[in-house]
Each structure stands twice: as C-alpha cells, then as structure tokens.
Amino acid sequence: MIKGKLKVSAILAMIMLLSTGLYAQWQQDNDYKFKINVPANWSKNSYMDATDKVWDFMSPDENAAIQIRAFEATPQFTTDLLVQVYEESMLPQDARRESLTNHVSKQGIRGKQGIYSFDYNGTNVSMGVFFTIQKGFGYVISAMIPTSMLQRKSSQVKQITESFTVLGTSTNNSGSSLAGLGGGAIVSQFKISTIQLCSSLDNNNNAINPGTSFNAQTPEIHAVLSYTGQTSSDLTVSWIYTNWNRTITSDKYNFKSGQGGVGVVSLSKPNNGWPIGNYKVVFEMGGKVIDSKPFEVKEASRGLGGLTGSTGGGKLAGKYSLASRSDAQNTVNYHYIFIRDDGFFDEKYQPKNSGNYTGGGQGTWKQNGNTLTLRYDDGANQELTIKGDELIRKSSTGTVFTFKKAD
C-alpha cells in the first residue's frame, strides 16, 4: 500500500490518460502485470517503496516525468480508498484537488482521474493522476510537467501515459471515453445517436439523472455521447456560453473502435461558479456541425425544488452529526452529513482504529415533504426521514441511525 510523501525531482503538471501512442520501447513489469511504452532516451528507474513497486521515467531535459506506483490490493481495497490514501500520504501538504471524476482510459481501464495543483519552489504546478484497481493490483499513474513547459511537452508525455496497459486486459475501446488526436479521412459512417447531459456519472460512465438545467455551483457538467460507426478524422467538441457567444474550450477527439460505443466529455466549474445563462456543447467534423445540445445554468433555488426545506421552523441546510444507533453500537470517531443550501451535500465518517482513514461521499439532495433523498455521485440513493431537527436513516439490516442538527 502507498506510503511516504511524493518526491518531486522536476517541476511538473497533469496529462490525461486517454489513447494509444507509438514508441519504440515497451517497459513491461511481469510481477505487477502492466506495460507502458517509453522513449528509449528517457531515463528509467525502478525500486520498492515499502510494499509498492515504483517506476520513474524522466525526459532527457528533466522537464517532464511520469511515475507508476503498483501494489498488491486486497479485495476490500477500493478505488475510493486508493484515492484517499494517496492524497493523504503522497501529495504535498499544500496540494489542492481541482477535480476528481470517474474515468475510462482508451485501453478500457476503469478508474478515477484526479487533477491537483500545488506550488513547488515558487512555481505553480499541476498534476494529473489516474487511480485504478485491476486483477488484484492497485495502480497510480501520475504525469507532471512545469506549467511553462506544458504546450511544448504535453503531446509527448500524453502519448506515453496513453499506452499504459494492464496485462491480460482486453484493449477493445468501444466503451471508453472520448480520446485521442488524429487525422485522415472518415473510414466509415460516424453518427451520434444520443447526447445526455448530467452532473454525475455511475461507475460505468452512464449519466445519472440526465437533464439540461444545472446549478451555478455544479462541480462538473458531463456530456455522455452514444455513437455508431468509426472515424480517424478529428471530431471537435466545443463548450459555448451562448449569452456572450463565447467558446469556453474546444478539443479534438476521434473514434476507431468500428463498433460504436459511449464516450464522455466534461467541463469543470470555474473558480467563481458558472455564469448564469444559456450554454451549448457542439460536435463538429470536417468544419460542419453534426450535433449539439443546449443547456442552462440557474441560481440555486430557495425553498423550491427541494433545495431548502423546513425542519421545525428552520432551514433544512446544516450539519447533522450521528447521535445514536438503534443497536447501541459505537463504531466511529465521527459521522456527519452536511446539507448545503446550494443543493449539494457531503457525508463523512471515520471508523474507530482506522488511523487517518475517512470515508463518505457527496452528491445532490432533494426534499419531498418529510423525505430527504441523497443522490450520491457514484449512483447510489439514500432516503432519510426528516423529524424536527433530526434525520433518520434505516439500513438494509434494520438498524436505525439518528443524525441530529448542530445548534
């Protein structure tokens, strides 16, 4: 399992783990069941860090680096726990998480992708990390470049990270996320079947509660694209704020599976929230628009749509801490649900004798009368009963949990 702090030997930033690249030299680790394609002139070093096998790769000018950290994972070790342990034990103390999303690599590997930023020796640094558990092993693949070198170095580093493959895993990419850069003619008809917009995805990258209206504080907006056919020509995806006719970002992708599939493109919330108004995501090929999807961003409601509610004369929003269990057990140091008045919630708990581990989840909530529904980002739903300043949750085994609102 991961231990120790991140050792930064160069100033670095994030690269997405998306599609394949061609390099002359494969580096394969048969003990930890993976391979990656790395240029022959890059430096390579492998070593054991406690129970982790670590591979470090560095460009000749030392302005780009990639690290793979692998370890044997027990069945109880989840991707969420992997993220938690890595963030606590490996990242610098001033590191800031910019986003964390479900992700499927071009090689068909499912996991989570985190984007982080921090300062190193006075230089602002960003870092992308892909977390996955596969066939009894945990993998953390990080890619880093100095911000000033990002445009110059990102293409080469991306090609390397895109090649990461778990041995014995199929590389049929029909279900992977949108990926890759390429050119050339369309080799068979490509068609978009459906576009669904949503604020959260399940573990299979399916849209949860799709819609076209979002809150100004929605962390991410995803476009889930179902398509048929294949192409080696660029598909350009643009996110546009139509109130100002301003293109927020525009990226190029391609599809080569030949069987169709599902892809996901995402846009993260600006630091100050989404500007209120109308937007659209546009798909173009060969200079022509082949499909688009409009959506809107609204202010968080107050007393409408279940965003806030009444509990004995006060608002529903607030922090609710676990007060009692019907079986009288005491298994946690703390457990609370924080209901925010912008329609989102955070739940956190720490089991006793678990070190620094913290579990929980986050998502959106909705009130209907005395029923509070929590919709977690991983697709799970929970219903609680509102009783005065208390929230009552009943588990599948019949245990009743009472959470009491803080004064």
Protein architecture, described:
There is one protein chain. The protein has 407 residues and is mainly β. The protein has 3 domains: 26-166, Mog1/PsbP, alpha/beta/alpha sandwich (Protein Transport Mog1p, Chain A, 3-Layer(aba) Sandwich), CATH 3.40.1000.10; 191-298, Immunoglobulin-like (Sandwich); 310-405, Lipocalin (Beta Barrel), CATH 2.40.128. The protein is 6% helix and 51% strand. The chain has 2 helices and 30 strands. The protein has helices spanning 79-89, 150-162; strands at 26-29, 34-37, 43-49, 52-58, 65-72, 96-104, 110-120, 123-134, 137-146, 165-166, 191-198, 200-201, 207-208, 213-215, 220-228, 231-241, 246-255, 261-268, 277-285, 288-298, 310-311, 314-315, 318-325, 332-339, 344-351, 359-368, 371-376, 381-387, 390-394, 400-405. The protein has an 8-stranded antiparallel barrel with strand order 23-24-25-26-27-28-29-30. Strands 3-4-5-9-8-7-6 form a 7-stranded antiparallel β-sheet, sandwiched between helices. A hairpin with a 6-residue loop joins strand 4 and strand 5 (65-72). The radius of gyration is 23 Å and the shape is globular. The chain starts with 25 loop residues before the first strand and ends with a strand.
Which characteristics define this entry?
407 residues; mainly beta; Lipocalin; 6% helix; globular
